[in-house]
Amino acid sequence: MIISENKKLISEAASKLKLGDLVAFPTETVYGLGADAINKKAVARIYEVKGRPTDHPLIVHISSIKNLDKWAKEIPEYGLTLASAFWPGPMTLILPRTNLAKNFITGGQDNVGIRIPAHTLALELLNEFENKGGLGVVAPSANRFGAVSPTTASAVEIELGDYLDDMDLILDGGPSLVGIESTIIDCTKSLPTVLRSGAITYEMITEILGSTIDIKRFNPESMEVKAPGMLESHYSPKAKVLLSGVPLPGDGLIAIESFQTPEGVIRLASPKNNEDYARLLYEALRLADSKELKRVYTIPPTGGGIAVAINDRLTKSAFEK
Ligand code: TXA
Ligand code: MG
């Protein structure tokens, strides 16, 4: 396993994917653990390395909208509008699948998640892979199941180093700029449903689709498609995450810059705004674990936009297992 910032290694990484090895790579949201989406054995290793149940589907990453109809069919008009507005970008669309998307990547569902990431290194890797005859790269967040997603190459190594083998690779593209996972939108029905909130916000989606389209928000009571990122407990550090109360000396704290650190409390992040909060959140939770803190207090952001996604992740990381 190698960590490298050398872009020349991208071609080698693409060859590794073609051979069935795993390549962790940066995206603008979080780091992904990539495998050739049509290689059953390689995909099986992703589940093994993550310790993830096999009925949890994977997102196929492609380099261009031109490749979309290889994987998805019967794409509704609103799906195409979203794709052209927000790709490349932090958005995943769930679409009816073609025969290329096998059960071993969709968890047996007859739809498939697709994303075009907005990260130079990721796009170069996907392009190289496609030039070598590849069709798509499945990539879940490069963390153990239920843990915090990595936003740096070294976080990937800490998460998965013990589980990857010598042939696998971790590409280093610097810290992820968005910092939380993509917005997932179910486009298999007449109206879109947001299954996972993210940096493509409800407001942005409404603005693009127009107010005549009613975007349904995800309601766990009526869950028909499995999106296990919706599990109540997820994104969890070892430390206990608290969303209210008063931090005591020795506790960690994540709060907007203007919030003062009480005496003896360990400041883990001081985001300037909500975008900054999303970008810094997961590294701050990791820092809490590396400092072996027992508790992390967070002051959740307020309002709409990306604050919705941050609050979703905070709530899940705070959920008592
Ligand atoms: O930002 C992201 O989306 C990152 C980067 C690496 O692209 N990937 C990511 O993948 O977060 P993962 O596997 O950690 O989370 C994807 C979520 C899971 O909760 C999965 O169940 C859901 O998307 N998902 C994937 N395909 C689906 C499908 N066909 N139907 C419903 N949910 C799906
Ligand atoms: Mg994940």
How are the strands ordered across the major sheet?
1-8-2-3-7-4-6-5-9-10-11
Name of the top-level CATH class of the largest domain: Alpha Beta
Q: If you average the pLDDT, what whole number results?
A: 92
Helix content: 25-40%
Distance between the termini: 33 Å
> Which sheet architecture does the biggest sheet show?
11 strands, mixed
What is Rg? 19 Å
Total number of strands? 15
Report the sheet-strand fraction: 15-25%
Could you spell the SSE succession in H and E letters?
EHEEHEHHEHEHEHEEEHEEEEHEH
For the record, the CATH architecture of the largest domain stands as Alpha-Beta Complex
Molecular shape: globular
Uncertain runs are 221-225
Ligand types: threonylcarbamoyladenylate, magnesium ion
- What's the CATH superfamily of the largest domain, by name? DHBP synthase
CATH structural fold name of the largest domain: DHBP synthase
How many distinct domains?
2
